[in-house]
Amino acid sequence: MTQILNRTGEPEWLSQKRVEAFGLYESLPVPNRKVEAWKYTDVSYIDLQSLKPAQVVQPVSSAEELPELVKARLSSTDVAGYLVFNGPDVVYKHVPEELASKGVVFTDLKSALETHPDLVRKYLYSIVPAEVPDDTTIAAPGTTPSKSPDPSEGKFSALNAAVWTNGAFVYVPRGVEVDLPLGSFRVMEESGAYTATRTLVVAEANSKVTFIDEQDSHELSDAYAFGAVELIVRDGANLRYVSVQNWGRGVTHIQRQRGDVDRDATLNSLVVTMGADLSRTEMQSYLRGQGSSSEMLGLYFASEDQHFDHYTLQHHAAPHAHSDLLYKAVNSHESRGVFSGMIKVDLGAQKTDAYQKHRTLMLSSEARNDSIPQLEINANDVRCSHGSTTGPVDHEQLFYLLSRGIPRASAEKMLVTAFLEDVLSRLPLENVVKYIEGIIAEKVGAV
């Protein structure tokens, strides 16, 4: 891996960050199940020393030359602009001129290093750092992070910080509202290789933007995707972030997503996990400013022998902040689901209002789901609650549908979709919801 640290044309500060991160990566062991954060997920099969980076794919000149997976999504998604990544790098961009006229920067990270170097340097690594901090507080975005609220920083974050090749960069200036979503579509077509990408979204004060981050592939063999997402929401801004992971079988997916929310700002996030053999996603909101708000939605559907692990953190560092987490899970066949969620309230974060709910629908007696909701409260005037439920399909409801002549697969699709509806109904993106419902139909064999 050391050969990809030496990239021509990159600024010295970034090269130094990569070297430091790679040194950390080499010094840390691969997480094992003796570590609490990885207790239910075994990644010992990943031989990091033998991994090779995915080969660069040549850019295309028109959308008609894109992979069919991407063309199918673009034909049914309303976006103001989009980037397409194939393997390690961007292969196509569609960015309307009116975005630039408003001062919006929407491009890939590698290009942003050339056109907006000061912005990238200010924000990159600011909330998903290139080092493992030693405390429980993080610095303001745009400054060097020396501490972090995340107890599970480790080898995979250091790996991504060292070897990422490209990713999406979004910068929305103060007071600007982007009406239609911006999108990033990632595909992999190469087995036996890994990709490492980053997403950096910055919403300045009183701005508004929606960003859709989709990942898809056909079935592969021994492929890996290591990701990092940094979401910076300044005072009074509103950012909606949607992540849809639908890799094909044979992929291992490990990604950390973190949002940093300032005073009176709002971060709405949705994490959808449907693909890969093993998927580990960490989604954290750091409520830095008074009056900040975070809505964290998630849904995942594991089938066959898939293993999906989600770790969430609602970190309240300021008073009068609000967070609401709702994750819905479906497990069928011999799949395994893991949810570990923490609400953490710092000393002085009075009047915190935080909720956490995780519910699982089991379609098979052979499936398993482990749910670990947690609270860590260091203030005495707060309202915090958490809860978790797990249960099978209601047999009376299923019998009623079957008795009306509805095929079993269609009946199960209806029940699963209804179970997930209170998550999907909160997403004001109709085409994305239809896409997710289509994946659900495939999972239960209704198409």
From TrEMBL:
Residues 189-419 form the SUF system FeS cluster assembly SufBD core domain. It comes from the Bacteria. Residues 10-182 form the SUF system FeS cluster assembly SufBD N-terminal domain. InterPro entries: Fe-S_cluster_assembly_SufBD (IPR055346), SUF_FeS_clus_asmbl_SufBD_core (IPR000825), SUF_FeS_clus_asmbl_SufBD_sf (IPR037284), SUF_FeS_clus_asmbl_SufD (IPR011542), SufBD_N (IPR045595). GO terms for biological process: iron-sulfur cluster assembly. NCBIfam families: sufD (TIGR01981). Belongs to the iron-sulfur cluster assembly SufBD family. PANTHER family: PROTEIN ABCI7, CHLOROPLASTIC (PTHR43575:SF1). This is Fe-S cluster assembly protein SufD. It comes from Deinococcus cellulosilyticus (strain DSM 18568 / NBRC 106333 / KACC 11606 / 5516J-15).
